[in-house]
Each structure stands twice: as C-alpha cells, then as structure tokens.
Amino acid sequence: MLEQKLQQKQVQKLSPLQIQTIKMIELPQMDLMQRIEKELEENPVLEEVNEDPENQEGAPKNVSLDEYRHDDTPSYRLYVNNQGKDLKPEYNTFQVRESFQQSLLHQLGYCKLDTRQMQIAAFIVGMIGDDGYLRRDLESLSDDLAFKTGLEADAEELEELLKVIQGFDPPGVGARDLRECLLLQIHYLPSTPARDLAGKILTDCFDEFTKKHFSRIMQRLSVSDEELKAAMNEIRRLNPRPGGQVDDSYSEQAQQVVPDFLLDLRDGELVLSMPRFSIPELRVNKRYAEVLMNAAGNTTQAGKEAVAFVKQKMDSAKWFIEAIKQRHHTLQSTMQAIIDFQHDFFIDGDETQLKPMVLKNIAEKTGFDISTVSRVVNSKYIQTHFGIYPLKYFFSEGLTNKEGEEVSTREVKTILSKSIAEEDKRKPLTDEELVALLGQKGYQVARRTVAKYREQLNIPIARLRKEL
Known about the structure:
By secondary structure, the chain is of the alpha+beta class. The chain has helices at 16-26, 29-42, 100-108, 115-127, 138-149, 155-165, 178-188, 193-204, 206-210, 214-221, 225-236, 286-295, 301-341, 343-348, 359-366, 370-377, 409-421, 431-440, 447-456, 462-465; strands spanning 46-49, 79-80, 94-96, 255-257, 261-266, 269-273, 281-284, 381-384, 387-390, 398-400, 406-408. It has four domains: 14-94 and 255-341 and 376-395, no CATH class; 98-176, Arc Repressor Mutant, subunit A (Orthogonal Bundle); 179-237; 398-465, Arc Repressor Mutant, subunit A, CATH 1.10.10.60. The chain contains 20 helices and eleven strands. It has a four-stranded mixed sheet. Strands 1-7-2 form a three-stranded antiparallel sheet. β8 and β9 (387-390) form a beta hairpin. α7 packs antiparallel against α8 and α12 (286-295) crosses α13.
C-alpha cells in the first residue's frame, strides 16, 4: 500500500550570481576570453567598451538599475573595467603537450578502420595505462568490451587492432610487458648489427638480460664483449615506460595557454599582476535599459513580454559582470597566498625551497573553501622570471627530516634523482641503499616511498641501470 508523507528539508540553494562566479573561477584565461565573447553574442544588453567611456563624446552613461522598478542593484555592480591603457601589451603563450591518451586517439583518427573497429580500438586505448602498457589480457578485455559497450570481439580481433595501436607514437605503446615494449621499439628503428643483436637478446635471452648475466648471453649467442656492449647500449636507449613520466602533481592537456598570473622580481620584491588585456571592459547597454523603462507602464501582453525579456537579460548581464569581478578578486587573493607561502621558491625557482603545501593551507590563509581554492588552482598557470608553471606544481605533501622540519616531496625527489645520477653504474644503488643514503642526508623515507618516487621520475630499478 502506497503512503504519502510530507517531509520538510532544508536545502541550500545557490543564487544565479554564485553559480556564475563558480563557473568563472574554474575557467582558465583562454576559456574565459571565449566565454565573454559568447556572452556578448548572446546577450544584447551586455556590451564591450573599447575606450574609456568618460573620454567618449556622447557616450551613454553607466546604467544603474536604481532608475527602474523592482531592482535596487547599485550602479557600480553594472560596470567592470579590466583593461589598462595599453590594449595590446606583450605577453607569452605556450603550448602544453597533449595528454597521453589524447595523443593516441588523435593518431587513431588517421587509421582506415570502420566505425565498429574504431570503437573497439578506442576502447583498447582507454585501457592503456599512463605508463604506456596494456595490463589486461585480451580474453578479459573481450569480456570488458562486451559488458561496457555491448560490442563483441574475440581475442584474435583484439590482437589485430592492438597491433595497429602498437604502431603509434611513442614506439612501445600498447605493450603487455617489458619485453614486448622493448622489442616494439627495436623493430621501429632502422636495422643495424647492434640493434639486430639487441633484438635477439630480448627475444632469446630475456631472462639472462633482466638478471644481468652477461657472460651467459655472450656464450649462448656466441658474441664478443664489444658486440654485447654495443647491443646493450642500444637497449639502454629504449624507454621502458613509453607513456612518459607520470607526474603526481598535475596532468597536462592539449590547449593554448595564456598565463593567468604574471610574477616579477623587482628590487628583490615579488610583484604579482594579472593580464589585463584579455578581459574586455563590459557594461549594460543603455538602449535596452530605456526599453525597460518605456515598457514598465505598458500593461499590454506585448509590453509585459518585452519587460520580462529585457529584465531577464539585464539580470544576466549584471550577474555576469559581477561574477568576473569576483573571479578576479578570488584568483588574485589565492595566488598571493600561494606566493606568500612559497616565497623562498619564487625568489629564484629553487625546487628545494618548495615547502609542503596542500589546498587546506591556502584555504586557511584566504578564508575561502577548499573547493574554491581547488577551482582556482585547476588549469591555471603563472609566468615567473624563471619559467611558466601550472599552479598545481606548487602543491605537494610533506615529509619530516632528521631535524624535525617538514620538507616537500619535490625536494626529496630532487635529492634522489641527483644521488642516482652520481652512482657507480657498475654497481647501481638498490632501493634499500638509496633509503640509507637519503637517511645520511637527513631524509627519513621508507623503501616503498623511494620505489614510488623512482618510478615517478622514470628511473628503472638498480639491475636495469647497471652498465658494463
């Protein structure tokens, strides 16, 4: 038997202005420019001012809705000026690389496959990890495909499409294990005696190769010490992680980037600014305000509809302008807090000066919610006197050194990378030895942490770093 119950709930509802502001904060500089252009096209009440309105002869005054009925919005909220006198200042743009899977899908688009094959191949691409490997066996992949997409494909067909993908750049992508990965790369290169021997080593002596049993390889393949060295040099040039470095701080997307912030060092002082050229000066169009005034006393149906339309567009313009102002304030406050927190790093870009910092630290300094700080940080960039960085770069967890001071994981990674670069390649340091070495330098880390950082730095295990 169905029963009806009356239940009262308290739900927090965001205002149109709050919704607009949240959306604006999330947008990086280039997207914001496009968003403003779209709003200018769609809302006839909103207009761009190309010059200082006070210097324009006969220009309409700023519109205040105080003049109209049922609205008490002050006039300063209907006008935003984000432009300086210089309308075309110099600025830098740069291209960040495509994400790994975006690159594979882009290459897939050039393949001569039918619609069904394209869908299956795209599914396989989606199953390839950031390191470039396909970790699922083809039988399991066939089941996953049927369950998630409804498409049927046996292991043989999946193998054929996988071979197509394995022909993509970077060489080695789509491999199911290290051996296949290295062989794909060797076969991709022009043939030479050393590369041919490298292929034989990987095909016939892979177990000996992984264990660095060089004498057994020479005996089994009847090759000299010099021939083996040449072949090993070829293998050493290959990439065991064709997906590229997996950075735990941020992932890059394919887009043209205009820095959201500019940071200069002037007489030892850090000076933050935000590009002013990209956001046009906006205001409410007076002509449509007059339509609202003239129609306010019109009681006909057409008059009421005109009032409703113009009122809705004016409200939308008002919220849009105010949202841009609030975005500017939120972004500037958040970035300044990050600079204050990481002051020593921003002086000269020394990674070892980066302090452990999480979103909560900046939320506490600014008074914003963590979610707001996260929106500011996402997809935003700052141009400094030593390079351009995504804001996520400055955030990392911390460890404690022997003095009890917190140090950034980036600092530990830098020391780890330097230690491995300086090791004796005939006797490379194991993870346990790296733990001991870092401990001597004042960094107390676990072996699994060293292994994690080493993998993130794209550094192979000790036996794969060994040289003859």
